[in-house]
Structure prediction request, 263 residues.
Amino acid sequence: MLNKIEQLLEKEGVQLKEFSELLIRLMDYGVICRDESQVEQILYDRYLRIEDIVQDYISLMAIRIQHDRRFQFIRCFPPGSQVPGMEDDDQPFNSGMRVRLSQNEVALVLVLRSQYDKALREGQVDEQGCVMVSLESLSIALKNLLGRSLPEQLTERKNLFRRLRQLRLIQLANEDALEHAEFWLKIRPMIMSYVSDEVLSTLVAEQEEGELEVSAEKEVDVADEAQQEVAIEAGVTDESDETEESEEEALANSPSVFAEESK
Prediction:
């Protein structure tokens, strides 16, 4: 089999070592983006030359590859996973190849997906399919959607965004600027394959439901305040009535001037 692969590679002008380098990078990172670096540009262009060979080789392990030619990235999926635009694999599978994210990472990925979807609807997507978003808007969306906040410590915040950069979900110009609210970053179109439309719809629906509950609570509070105001006004009226009655009683019980004169 190895000899056959070498023969196929030779026709494309690719050495077995270069083939191995491409596979190792793809299996290690799980993704290759052409615009990420010069190294990944070379590997992506190499993949285009030997795509069929790579596909056949990886298919032996039931690993599937998503290739987005428009935005020039490739991503491998372990067996049994759902791949956008491909039929689902019915084989049950639990693998270490699957990306396990922390709670903070999952929360930020969800918010990135919602921000990307919003920009997509508004047509604010560049030629590479990326979306610019500020750290401040991300922080606000994270609070509104999930009731969470970004890590306060700069080290934790850097690690969080560095992890998403390794997954090629975002592009960062300078990690040291993450402490500033006006810092901007790019969301890659690959975020679409990490969070499905169903998950996003559920998240948005829960947010809207929460807003309705808050609105209903506010309406109840307003009604209670109105009732209290009415009660206060009624109390003032009662006090004035009681005052008038007490004055009448005082006049009735006070000694009469005419009575003294009659004496």
In short: The longest helix spans residues 197-253.
